[in-house]
Amino acid sequence: MASIGAPVCVVRRYKPEDMVAAQDIVGKAVMETVTDYFWSAVLSEVLPQVALLTIAFSYIGLGIPFYFCLLGIPTAVVIIYAVIWLAHMSKVSSALEVGQEMTNIPRLFLEHSDCCFWVAEVLECSEASDLDALMNKMKKVEYHFMGEEESSAREAELQGIRRHVVGILGLTKSRRGGMKGWLRHLAVKKAYRRRGIAQQLLDEAIHFSTEHCLNEIELVATECHHKARELFYKKGFEVQHTYFKYYFNVQQPFYIFSLPVKPPKAELSEISSL
């Protein structure tokens, strides 16, 4: 049992007041991949193509001296980064898929009994100074993880403690049909990573899937999600399928991970007795 002053992280179901924090977390997670996509584009044929077009337009179309037109190369780099950045920004806007999902969490993740959305909430003593909070983020912290049941039982003890939503994860029915779950939007704030929070969220989703008799959990990850893929392999997920999409004329691999889910022990005993 953790004391009040110990670092605590509660993994619980989503509440309406978590929407802003969830949007912020997933938005920053999406924007973090800008650099990876940018370097993929720069190191491919995209850069010389854009640079050549920029130089040709400047020299032929505008009549700019050729040696000035060579500035088209760094200009092309800026253009590529700006386009990728704007594309990522539009992805998290309310008009596109990610933005729509973040503004419709109750409808998409909470209306059906076999779907859910969780948040990881870090609790810090209100007496802690801002400097203490900053140092806590910078150093290695071992959290005491609580579920909703333990958190509710200790509600009086945890009164007055500052709470910050630092991680999210959703589970819906798989797009591929069957008794399969589809994990969405696993993300943790950068300052709170490598502390077991993402793993705890995954464990909660796996336990939920087991209790709701799902046969399998699936998710998709890209080449940019290096650390996430390491975690998926660690938890027993395996790549079942790889497909490719083109972003700015650069082929990007997408990996569909899958994890078989065992039925609850009670159900296993019933099956074995048949």
Automatic annotation (TrEMBL):
Mark the transmembrane ranges.
37-59, 66-87
The entry's keywords: Membrane, Transferase, Transmembrane, Transmembrane helix
Superkingdom, according to UniProt?
Eukaryota
Q: Which residues form the N-acetyltransferase domain?
A: 120-262
Q: Extract the PROSITE patterns matched here.
A: GNAT
Pfam families given for it? Acetyltransf_1 (PF00583)
Q: Which InterPro entries match?
A: Acyl_CoA_acyltransferase (IPR016181), GNAT_dom (IPR000182), NAT_camello-type (IPR050769)
One example of the protein's molecular function in GO is:
N-acetyltransferase activity
Q: PANTHER family per the record? A: GNAT FAMILY N-ACETYLTRANSFERASE (PTHR13947), LD18367P (PTHR13947:SF37)
Indicate what this protein is called per its UniProt record: N-acetyltransferase domain-containing protein
